[in-house]
Amino acid sequence: MELINGVLFHATGASSAALCYTPQKKVVGWSWQTYWLAQALVCWLVLPVVMAFITIPQLTVVLHEAPGAAMIKSFLLGMAYGVGGTAFGIAIRYVGFSLTYAIAVGISCVLGTLLPPLVHGTLGDVLKSNGAAFLIIGIVLGAIGISLCGLAGRNKEKDIEQDQHNTSTFSLAKGLPLCLLAGILSALYGFSLDQGQPIADVAAKYGATNFQGNVIYIFSNSGAFVTTLLYCLYLHNKEKTFGQYATAGGNSLAKNYAMSVLTGFLWYGQFFFYGLGHVRMGNYKFTSWAIHMIMLVLFSAVAGLLLKEWNNCSKLTMRLLILALLVLITAVLLLTYGNYLGGV
Predict the structure, then answer these.
(1) What is the dihedral of CA 48, 207, 287, 115, to 10 degrees?
(2) 165: which DSSP letter?
(3) Which of these, 171, 182, 213, lies nearest to 84 by C-alpha position?
(4) Who contacts 18 (Cβ-Cβ below 8 Å, separation ≥6)?
(5) What is the rounded distance in angstroms from the CA atom of residue 318 to the CA atom of residue 324?
(6) Please, which residues have CB within 8 angstroms of residue 7's CB and are 6 or more apart in sequence?
(7) What gap in Å lies between CA 7 and CA 291, rounded to an integer?
(8) Where are the alpha helices (DSSP H) in 101-213?
(9) Buried/exposed code over 201-232 (b: 16+ C-beta within 10 A; e: otherwise)
(10) Cα separation of 97 and 317, whole Å?
């Protein structure tokens, strides 16, 4: 039952992440960097600290006793993840959201899942354990499903460009290296949480139980915030947009801040529920990253359908999307069953 609860918590977190970009559509009169830095302040800096104070008993004692090396590693890997997020955003300009998602998230899914057991030297033992075949097939199918979803999304973008006679800025030569960089560095966030586990272990000793992972976010998320802050400040300086924090078109300033805060809460929600799911995954906790990333893409596609973003697409595009969703669902079921066998 704990395993099922873990998967459901991962589903909740992935759903939150899938919806986190929707408030951006309501933002008016702000550049990307103004909105992005405002929401990053909430999800990367404010909420991790606030939620740690709420959910971690004797937080100051925990931080005093926790190993400094784990804090530093988690923070630096979080910074690398922040660079990956920036590369992801830039790649979208050249190859579109869907193809960027397919390549970057696909790489992150596989690499971020296998990196922790590989570094710890336990991957060989895992491959010999009960349910290992289901785990590997699930991870591979997840990567295939993500790729298919990306191809369907790219077809959707082509259909829209054709229908609206838009001029495409597509450039694989510029976008592909950025997608690869984004995928590799984004995978390091899962590794950041893995390296911060000694901090969570101290929190568990003081009664944090299932909320123990929240203490790691103080370091991993603040690391991501630092790189995000530097890039946004660079864009502000380049485009002279610092004044947007005090102005917006019409009466939109309060709404812009409200949408930024909502985005931050949704974005942080994925980490909060990820932690609750991760502690319930039994012997194969490293598969949390794969389950989360696969569900993230799955629910993002479903959200797009509900928001009617796939209307007027060709039959081929819709068939490809349906196939992708079926493959993603199968991958999650296989990973869940593999985890079940690992606990028998």
Answers:
(1) 70
(2) T
(3) 182
(4) 296, 299, 300, 302, 303
(5) 10
(6) 277, 291, 332, 336
(7) 8
(8) 106-120, 123-127, 132-164, 172-186, 188-195, 197-205
(9) bbbbebebebbbbbbbbbbbbbbbbbbbbebb
(10) 16
Q: Token pair of 44, please?
A: 């990367």
Q: CA 178, CA 46: separation in Å to the nearest integer? A: 29
Rounded to whole angstroms, how far apart are CA atoms 257 and 315?
40
Q: Tokens in use for 40?
A: 């990053």
Tokens of 85: 């997020």
129 SS3 class? coil
d(CA 222, CA 82) in angstroms, rounded, equals 9
233 token code pair: 């400040």
CB atoms within 10 A of CB 265: 17
> Could you read off the pLDDT tens digit of each residue along the chain, which spans 344 residues?
789 999 999 999 999 988 887 888 888 889 989 998 999 999 999 999 999 999 999 999 999 999 999 999 999 999 999 898 888 878 877 877 667 777 888 898 899 899 899 988 888 888 888 889 999 999 999 999 998 988 888 787 777 666 655 555 667 778 888 989 989 998 898 899 999 999 999 999 999 999 999 999 999 999 999 999 999 999 999 999 999 998 866 668 889 999 999 999 999 999 899 999 999 988 888 999 999 999 988 988 888 888 787 887 888 889 999 999 999 999 999 999 999 998 76
**187 neighbors 112 (Cβ within 8 angstroms):** yes
Pull the structure tokens for residue 282. Answer: 């039994």
> Is 198 in contact with 67 (CB distance < 8 Å)?
yes
Among all chains, which residue has been given the structure tokens 């097939």? 137
Q: Report CA-CA distances (Å) from 159 to 92, 314, 332.
A: 17, 7, 30
User: What's the chain's length in residues?
Assistant: 344
In this structure, what DSSP letter does residue 311 have?
Answer: T
